[in-house]
Amino acid sequence: MASKLHIKAFLMKLVVTTAVLWVILGLFYKVNFTDILITSIVLTVVGFLGDLFVLPRIGNVLASITDFVLAMVVVWVLGSSIFDERIALGTASFISALILMMGELFLHRYMESHIFEPQITNPEEKTGYYQRTNLQTEFAEEVDVDEISRETKEKEVKPSVKKEKNGKRK
User: What does 117-168 look like in DSSP terms, one character per residue?
Assistant: First the structure.
């Protein structure tokens, strides 16, 4: 069953999608609001289902790129079949998809932190950069390269003193 957070995320996506499409298609291209609402609902349902399954697997940026392609295709296909007005559909769908993609970046962050992250209860399973618990610190002495090369040169410069078998010098 869908939780309140799923419903909230869905409604957020629906409102953002409707607002963006209304501004781009309604104000600039004079598409009527009913067509915008139908396009927005279809785009939100398909996109939200995609976000639930795709976002946890491929991450925010790739999911946003996927949403860009999805939005462009849906606006273009639905626009060509239901929009009454003759508009530059390629340009309108591209601009709409681009702005929706920017909004999706923020919506995906919300979904990752409020919907997907609370499902993981074991900290060992968290994959975020700052949630890693298996890190160790390594301590070591720093090596002074100049000192080592100086000692090596001093050994080469000093003449070696030969000793006889009984340990006395020659």
Answer: GGG--SGGG--SGGG---------PPP-HHHHHHHHHHHHHSPPPPB-TTS-
